[in-house]
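job 3f2a | input accepted
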Amino acid sequence: MASVNPFNLSDSEEEAERRPNDTVDTERSPSDGAPGPPPGNPFSPPADAEPPTLLLSSNRTSPSGEGMSASAAATSAMAGSSEARVSVDTIAAQLLRDQYILTALEFHTELLEAGRELPRLRDYFSNPGNFERQSGTPPLRQPMPWACKVKGQPGRYSRLVQMNRAGSISTLDSLDFARYSDDGNRESDERVAVLEFELRKAKETIQALRANLTQAAESEVPSQERKNFKSSPEVQEPIRPLEKRALNFLVNEYLLKNEYKLSSITFSDENDDQDFELWDDVGLNIPKPPDLLQLYRNCGSPLPSPRDVADVSVGVDFGDLPGNCIAQETPRKLDLTQQVCAVFISGTFVQELEYQISLLNNEKQSLAEQIKKLQRCVCAYISGLAEEQRLKVKLSPAFQQALLSFCRMCSDSRLGAEVSRIADSEESVMLMLGRCLPHIVPNVLLAKREELIPLILCTACLHPEPKERDQLLHILFNLIKRPDDEQRQMILTGCVAFARHVGPTRVEAELLPQCWEQINHKYPERRLLVAESCGALAPYLPKEIRSSLVLSMLQQMLTEDKADMVREAVVKSLGIIMGYIDDPDKYSQGFELMLLSLGDPSERVVSAVHQVFIPAFAAWTTELGTLYTALIPSLLARIEKLLTQGEHGLDEHKLHIFLSALQSLIPPLFAVVLQNAPFTSRAKLHGDIPAIEVTRFPRPASPLQDVATIIGSREMLSALLLLYDHQLEHEGTTGWESLLWVVNQLLPQLIEIVGRINVTSTTCVHEFSRFFWRFCRTFGKIFTNTKVKFFFPPPHQIMCSTHHSVDASAGNGILTKATVPIYATGVLTCYNQEEDRKLLVGFLEDVMTTLSLSHAPLDSLKASFVELGANPVYHELLLTVLWYGVVHTSALVRCTAARMFELLVKGVNETLVAQRVVPALITLSSDPEISVRISTIPAFGTIMETVTQKELLERVKMQLASFLEDPQYQDQHSLHMEIIRTFGRVGPNAEPRFRDEFVLPHLHKLALANNSQAAESKRIDIATQLFEAYSALSCCFISEEVMVNHFLPGLRCLRADMEQLSPEHEVILSSMIKECEIKVENRGMSDAQGSMSIASSLVGEDAKTKFLSKMGQLTTSGAMLANVFQRKK
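job 3f2a | predicted structure (1129 res):
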């Protein structure tokens, strides 16, 4: 019966036919490796006979019966030798002894199929130890030239029996050989299944070996320890895991071979982390050594070369074997191996010698130092002996002591005792310094006491007594009465060095109590030292103390200390604390401290908050993930609450606090957007990264607000900015959580807040304009154009909404709020390219046109001009906008342009006024529409108030005179009202000559003309404006002539009107007239008594000098000084 071997372990039939002359030269016993069977065995083939042909491939069976079963072959072979019947067990023993393993395997399989199981074969194939490698070579598919040359047959080699080896858990008896039948259709599938099983088991073995190798490498004895063991032979090096596993395997193998099965089982249970059936479990690519018995026998002789044992490896092809692998090469290879070993040993020996040399050098240096010390001691001893020899004079002790008393040595005092007791060790030096420093410090000049700081700190650091250390640190903090900046820096540097050396526990126990004692010191310099110390020591304190005691100390100083510089240092130290705090529960306390410090009345404290505290607090909230989920929303909620509560009076100071805090949070918010972007992982620092433009970001208030500092480096920021702009321009914001929050929540909320601000609040407009400017500049031009401007209505939408919602009476439309000026000054001015300037000009022109045509209040346009006019860069741009209004076809627009000149003139230089403003106003003053001409009067008045050029003033004066003296304006009530209002506004600040020669005479004429006004309403309007103008001008210095000729007559005319129209104003006017008359009279008397006043002044000065000299001569106490002024009784 033919059987199918599932393992493709032998050569193919073609290979067998190509090598018909190959013989088996030498066989090795599975136990001791002895070559060949014993002589005389009738079942061993002759040396020159062909071995049995082993047809073991998976396709060897055929229906024609060409193949021969292993048992039949064996039986026919034996039949030719002996006619006696041989037992099956004898055949099996002979096959195993001659290493015909595969033949024995087929024999075993056929016996199993026949129902006749042979115990010898079953035990052999059930024991995995019979199939372990006996070579030191790694299990690679390499040709192993281990066959020896056969005597009498040169050039012929023994055939290498190849065998695939199964894993330990898949021994031969565990495979179902019965399922391999003669069915050729199933052979392929069965072979694939077996190979897959073998592959899986091989992978598991490799993984286990790698894990063992890693564990062995991790537990490797350090090289320095190995050196120590080598240098000290009497100390045995601890066993390594690899060595332990190898010895365990050999011990278990010895127990099994010598029938100690129970001991082997117990030993396996105690080492359950090792597989004793598989040598590869010991380690990866580790050759198996000989068994314990052979190791014991060879312990006195050199170990055999690794080439002495052949590796019966798997899958070696005879074609891969080298052709010159003959027995004569073995000695040469052994010599080469010995040479390699010798080189390796010599290298190790050199390393050992180098290590021994380094040890000897160290010992040499140590001995040299000891010799130097001994030489000094010997010299001192010799000198002492010499001194004793010189003093060996026969003197009585009493006489000798009396004689030595004349040396004037003093040991009775503290200092004498210290001097006579020389320190002989490091510890005694520290003790001596601890005793002496408290007495040295008070006697050192105040200006030089900082020289003692190193000595005090070193002693306090190394002194063994806690009480003495406390005293020294107390001296340190009280070393200088009022330390200046340099001295405080020196003390702080020492404290940090002390803290770095002694550790957090001693800093808490020794340094912090000193700070606590000084927290309420009367000198602010001492309290300043405490505040700065808390920040400097923060990195070296325990985290629990840092977030509890130190934080409470600083909070107390922030709320109670009166000195600005102390609170400033407290805020900076709080910022440092926030950089090291890690307790999320302290977030609310940090937020309240931020608001408290922002409300400080001192500007330097608020500046420190923006420079240090807010950036550090923002960095902490970024780490907590609450920057844009808690911190910024809290500030926005407070702003909204402030606007809700301040409908009738907005607290602008609180609004400034919250908005400035938001402004300081813009850089960390942008950094969070960059760090959480989808492209952050793609940012690369290598390659050509363009430098960041200088004007890309607003100038930071401190380095902590620099986006590059927050990100980590300018190179990383530059790489992120490139990806940021590309993402916004081409890919959008999908999946970008932080930026989506900015676009969908932050911006809409800010726009809503802006819409609720009254445009007349100049401070609020300025604060929000500055916020949006920094916001847009930080987030970039692409973001501003695509996201921010989307939320502000474009000009055409503003015009459409204005026509529907704004009229002359309503005044509550979109253009009457702060949206227009904030958009114009905060968003449209972020970038100064030509296209950006054109956009701004077009927006202002559209707003001016829209407001004028709809008769809406001009407050929003005025706010825009005021905010932009504060920056000279925009003067030309604003003049361009106004010139558009000057030449506009609508009189309403021209009137608006004329009124806007009044706001612009104050900030424009006189050259632009002469070249651009005055010509435009002259053009408008001759406009066909009287309303346009009247609208130019306030601008002319402002020019008279601010300009100093005489030619310019004369032109303006002539134009105003034409308004007053031209007959066509005599009945223009609006023109007279505007002129009187302008005179009252600019008169106090105008040139005195212009006021005396032009303003007051024309006011007199207008008051006189108003007495004869028939229309009562016009008369009261003029009278009211005149009253305001005269009230403002009454504070000015007016010459007597003008007072008598124009000012008093004008007041009397005005009083005549008020007597009839407004009696309450008449009383005020009467008092003003009386006061002016008294001034005129007093001036006349002062002129008459001019000479007398000079003489009296001299007399008065003389008396004053005498009195002061008498006061200076008094050296008595305060009580005596007070008695000088008491009445005599």
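job 3f2a | Residues 1-183 form one domain.
job 3f2a | closed
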